[in-house]
Design a protein that fits this description.
The protein is mainly alpha-helical and 113 residues long. It has five helices and no strands. Mean pLDDT is 77; it is low at 1-14.
């Protein structure tokens, strides 16, 4: 009788409909999934396997899943990338705009006396 129950369960679970794979996603969305599943005690390789089913080729690598699982277990809670040293910052000021516009017109801001 136990064998029948197992077979019946298998048949039932194979007919369960799944949601459509996620065609578009962000790294932050995937990291949120990693954070959630790792908080439930799911191991990184299982997290990656489950994510690969849904995200396909857009899925984060297994190495990234391990890395983010480690970060979350060490207390990091943000799913965003931290700023990197030397990363360019854009500063738009009226002076910078005027310098670019004058450069376009062939005038040098230094020589515009």
């Amino acid at each position: 009788m136990a064998v029948r129950c197992r077979n019946a369960t298998r048949r039932r679970s194979s007919s369960v409909k799944r949601a459509a794979p996620l065609a578009t996603c962000t790294k932050e969305e995937q990291r949120s999934v990693i954070r959630f599943l790792s908080s439930e005690g799911v191991i990184p390789i299982e997290i990656h396997r489950r994510m690969k089913v849904q995200y396909g080729d857009a899925c984060l690598s297994l190495q990234q899943v391990y890395e983010w699982t480690r970060k979350f277990m060490n207390g990091i809670s943000s799913v965003r990338d931290s700023p990197q040293p030397g990363q360019a910052h854009r500063v738009v000021t009226p002076e910078a705009i005027a310098a670019v516009e004058s450069h376009r017109e062939g005038k040098s801001p230094r020589n515009s006396e």
